[in-house]
Amino acid sequence: MQIINYSQYYEQQVVDCWNRCCWYDAITIEKFRKQALFDDNFDNELCFVAVEDEKVIGFILGTKRKFPYLERGLEPTKGWVNVIFVDEKYRRKGIGTKLLNSVESILIDRGVTNIVLGAYSPNYFFAGLDPIHHEEACRFFDKMGYVSGAEHFSMSRDLHGFKMSDKVIEKKHEAENKGFKFINFEYKYSLELLEFLKEEFGGGWKRNALIAMQNSIAEDVMLVVLDKENHICGFCMRMIDGNPMRFGPIGIAKSARNEGIGGILLEMQMCQMSKKGIYHMYFITTDEPGRRYYERHGLSVFRTFIEYRKEL
After folding, report:
1. What integer pLDDT is reported at residue 279 of this predicted model?
2. What is the model's pTM?
3. Which segments of the chain are extended strands (E)?
């Protein structure tokens, strides 16, 4: 058995092994290339395969930023283990440990003092570790000195026959009487919206909206709220990764919170999705308060992730 740097010679084998090991998170070669190989920060020195008789039996991808990410910059002391897996037939033989040690040693040499599992922006495959579907991985990382943290939740809802609740319709009328307007995005608001998102929520939100504008889908996937001075004070969108069912992000200006605007936007988006024949909506991650909020609007948890990190 050898641990060697990744080569595209092994591309199909890596994806096939991934889909055997991480069947709940199966991928295509196209997804692998887009989110791993074609990521700005992909570094072959942080990507390894375990090979026996020319057969891929394990894989690991690590990341350290070479290019700054929006206002986060280079995050010079932070590194990621994006994904690691070992073929089931070859587990408990120290292969996972060797793969992980290979990446950790390079990250340490490059000044990393904090390694995070999975949650690498913007091209993460996993929001953390799934204790239900990857219980063995949790035990492995516990043993390797990683510490578990907060829980995050993926949530979804069926949209067949969806209609806005009477309570939210009433809140919408109340908000409109106060001067709020709920509209589909129009390109005349482009610059104002981008500035609003950057100032209120950060560069990642601006980036998502900007990509939708560049791809000429913004009017279809984004809703905005205007205050009585006709300034943007709320926003939501869907389809940030090209999947029409994916909802989010959604946010309200600090100055306009506690008016029920978020719930109105959420149900408006679900209503529009249902009318378009998009009968399922989901998002990847929210925290515990977010979980309670979305449950009030009929969403339910379909997956849980746990933060894992290691301080060096």
Report:
1. 98
2. 0.91
3. 2-5, 47-52, 55-63, 78-86, 114-117, 147-158, 181-184, 222-226, 232-238, 247-252, 280-286, 300-311
First to last CA, the chain: 28
- Domain boundaries along the sequence of the chain: 2-126, 160-278
Architecture of domain 160-278: 3-Layer(aba) Sandwich (3.40)
Alpha-carbon torsion 162, 166, 171, 172, what sign? positive
Which residues in the chain show pLDDT less than 50?
none
Say whether the peptide bond before residue 122 is cis (omega within 30 degrees of 0). Answer: yes
Please check whether residue 171 is in contact with residue 263, taking contact to mean a CB–CB distance below 8 angstroms.
yes
Give pLDDT tens digits for 123-132: 999 999 999 9
**CATH topology classification for 2-126:** Aminopeptidase (3.40.630)
| Tally of CB atoms within 10 A around 135 | 11
Q: What pLDDT is recorded for position 258? A: 87
Amino acid 143: pLDDT:
97
Rounded distance between C-alpha atoms, residue 253 and residue 232, angstroms: 8
DSSP class of 125: S
Which among 261, 251, 276 is positioned nearest to 162, based on CA atoms? 276
Cβ neighbours of residue 260 under 8 Å, at least 6 residues apart?
168, 171, 174, 175
Of the candidates 111, 127, 130, the residue with the CA atom closest to the CA atom of residue 119: 127
